[in-house]
Amino acid sequence: MITRAVRQLRDLHDDLRQTERLYMVLVATVVGVLGGLGAVAFRRLIEAVNRVAWQEGPVTLGHLAALPPWWKIVAPAVGGAIVGFIIYRFAREAKGHGVPEVMEAVALRGGRIRPRVVLAKMFASGISIGTGGSVGREGPIVQIGSAIGSTLGQWLKIDQRRLRTLVGCGAAAGIAGTFNAPVAGALFALEVILGEFGVAQFSPIVISSVAATVVSRHYLGDFPAFVVPDYSLVHWTELFAYVGLGILAGLVALAFIRSLYATEDAFDRLRAPLPLKAMVGGAIIGLIGIQAPHIFGVGYEAISDALHGNLVWQFMLILVLVKIVAVSITIGSGGSGGIFAPSLFIGAMLGGAVGTVVLLVWPTPTAGTGAYALVGMGAVVAAATHAPITAILIIFEMTGDYKIILPLMISCIIATLLATRLQRASIYTMKLLRRGVDIQRGRAVNVLQHVQVREVMRPDVVTAAPDDHLLALISKFIDHPGSTLFVTDDEGVLEGIVKVDQIRPIMKDPASMEALIIAEDVMVAAEFPKVSPTDSLADVMRMLVAYRGEVPVLENGRLAGVIWPEDVIARYNTEIFKRDMAGSMVSAVGQEGGVESVPAAHDTVVAEIPAPGPFIGRTIRELNIRQDFGASVLMIKRTTGTGDDTLDTAPDPDCAFQYGDVMLVLAPSDQLPCLKRGVPRSRK
Fold first, then answer.
1. pLDDT along the chain (684 residues), means of 10
2. Is residue 378 within 8 Å of 387, Cβ to Cβ?
3. In this structure, how many other beta carbons lie within 10 angstroms of the beta carbon of residue 334?
């Protein structure tokens, strides 16, 4: 009976899978519900840790101020040690603020996130925040929700394209559930995580965000995150003050970003176990908290005080600096938590201080100080994350106050423009840039990341000797279709290049210059790019943005080949086609019967081929499949020990074939027999 029911459910799932929109709506709803439950569970966990660490949950500023100093040091230190152990032992991805790891998974791993990240991140961040770590709960719940969406998608064997959307659904659910802000949650996923506003992604993400909000409101109530007094724009001249606030917010956000990563570098240089470093960081936070308990945890109570004008401007400015230091130490030492709530805290204190000063200098046409605190929250978030749309809407939804929307928009846009002008990377993408992952230059460029220069370089290079005369150079340019000659010595060592533009001015009367000019006189010995055969083609593509012409390939100092720009572009188009083809065909491969052969472009086919004997135990890189067969491996289908099929939709070049593997390849039709035997045509 049970077996029959399972079979019927599987058949129903397969039927629904064929209706892409309905299927994604249903799965997105499940992700939203689970993400909402995750947000509720995460907040309950923080409260439970509060009760253990501080004997009160949720903890208040008054209670923290009354505790003895030793307690304020021991609690975050012990919490840091526990968090460091969890991260070191179970999931390194749980370290830090979480959102960059989700962005990297979407851009480079097709949305695949390890399932263990859900529990590791939840407990690491819950303990870090609950014991006083100066971080927020939004980044962790984004990573938790994204991991839930990714895990469900992998379990259902969903293709890469839709798996990325489910990761966005999980992120939207996390933001919506923790902030009670469904619109901002959806836009955060689209603007920050996915970086695109396509219709195919928009609908499931909105549904997931709404589902998470319903769950959150059921358990936590329908209340805004902050209760603020009524604010409005008193006079249009007040906009100048908000322009100034936007400029200050952009500068403060930049200081926050640089402080965060400078502190992280300082702790990384310490040769000590991660739990010990996190414990030291927690103890430092405790020392700071003795005088300023406002920096403990998410800091929402201090933000509310700023919104209601209960703090003096001098103390708020001090809290801006202290909070930046505290967050940097918490995350840099190995703690786990988000930077969204700290950005709100810093912005509220900055805005409150600015508003107080403006009110003292210019009292008549000015709103209360809380209005500036509210706008400052959004401006710092916008500048730090480079996501002004999300910042504007999340402040609106968190407060339910529409009257302040115009000043909010002005400050957020100005802060973002200034921050992006002074530094290209946001607080999220900076972490990825430090790993060599450039999200902002376009996720599509990463398809060339694993393609080596040797795979597209041309070995036939037109060279010139240093003493070649002008007419010889002109003759080679006439016979050679390129725009560059490579000047080498007798041993093939590259000494410089000669571009056609350099000799064009003297080509009108070459005979008169024949005896006067040789290659050495006009060659450029520096200021041109050089690559090696093992370099990534993605690096070459970045070079071609600023350099026009062929790029020399050097091996042990000698000229081994040349990269032509049109070859790079052609390979880029091929890789994009492969990625799109893999995404569209993964569902068919996952079903019974699979795909035998589908025509593609330029006499190529997409075919499903069992891994032949000569491939077993060897990696894609070792087999040199691209050069020997002219083929590319799009996917590998593998049967696990339990009998389930798994799909590797972006196989790494170092992935080794196993017995029973089935590969989906893009190859010339005449190479299929060779691939089935596993022997290149020249060796048959």
1. 63 61 83 89 88 81 84 88 84 74 75 78 86 84 86 80 83 83 82 68 84 87 71 74 92 92 86 86 89 85 86 90 92 85 91 87 71 90 88 77 79 92 85 68 55 80 76 72 77 78 62 60 72 80 72 83 80 64 48 48 72 83 79 75 58 76 80 82 56
2. no
3. 31
Residue 514's identity, in one-letter code, is E
Please answer whether residues 571 and 632 qualify as being in contact, where contact means their C-beta atoms are separated by less than 8 angstroms.
no
Taking alpha carbons only, the member of 599, 614, 604 closest to residue 671 is 604
10 lies in some domain? no
- Same domain for 524 and 629, yes or no, is no
Prediction pTM value: 0.67
Structural domain for 247, as ranges: 238-280+291-442
Number of domains composing the chain: 4
Residue 142 shares a structural domain with residue 273: no
Largest interatomic CA distance in the chain? 97
1 assigned to some structural domain:
no
Backbone phi and psi for residue 606, each to the nearest 5 degrees, phi listed first: -105, 120
How far apart are alpha carbons 59 and 41 in whole angstroms? 17
Give a yes or no: residue 675 inside a domain.
Answer: yes
CB 591 within 8 A of CB 156: no
3-class secondary-structure state, position 428: coil
105 and 207 housed in the same domain: yes
* Token output for 29: 């709803």
